Amino acid sequence: MREQLLGYLLGALEPTEHEMVEARLAEDPALQEDLMRLRDKVAPLAADDEHEDYDPPAGLAARTCNFVAARAGQPPQPAADLVPAGSWRLQDLLVAGGICIAASLLVFPAISHSQFKARLTACQNNLREIGTALTHYSQSHKGYFPLVPQQGKLAVAGAYAPMLREAGFLEDAAHLICPESPLAQQRDYNLPTMEEVEAAPAKRLPGLLCRLGGSYGYTLGYVLNGGYHGHRNRGRSHFALMADAPDDEISGRSGNHGACGQNVLFEDMHVGFLKSCRLRECDDHIYVNTHGIVGAGIGPDDAVIGRSSAPPVIMNTANGR
Fold it and tell me: pLDDT tens digit string along 261-272?
């Protein structure tokens, strides 16, 4: 099973194999620890938005083949003479093996990087689509985004999604699913309606709330002068409106992209990939409020993005309770 963890991380397993690994992870703490260690080891292979990609040095394949040939007692050969013209001898096989090794060292990381970038881009496109829906909602609601209810069964961050859909601004629920998230492996995902949540029995309610907002977290309201308020669309470039949902198992970070960072939708509707949970412009932690709690923000500039089932915990701004 441990041999399949790398394929699980890279999304390279067949659906049945992926489900089998997930089932084992759910019941095997030791395997979960192995997965966390493996995530840390492969993290350097993830895309780095701060650096450009580099092509391999010229002549790398030829130098690798000459190295293999030298270890086999053969003189160095020019790159043009590396393909054998006659029968395959042991030395020929060694040279061919060297070529395969060199190619694998170049191609496999490139494939992994390409898959990572493709899913990262698809996730960003999803957030832009949701951002468009949020903009339309604010334009028809006096400039305000959907406000997470303070009480009731829908008093969770994920309530934004059915609110957008039932207002007619979110047509395709597939935009709620990040291709790097566990929900992407569930082919039967459907967005619960507000009526379905309100009518759900206590036993079924937690499962609905976890799925309500899809793979993304949404901003909770904020407390000011003792009251609970929703955020108004002010087009701020530094205010985090949505992001990949935080993962409690990874110190509040999102696990959607191999725990390497998270896509964030800002109030001016641009999307960025951040490796940190804090914004450099204002040092605001996007997943907790000023008091370090997942709950309503402390003031209108305190962004708190809660996962789908997170309630808007209201705190007293005077004493933090």
Answer: 999 999 999 999
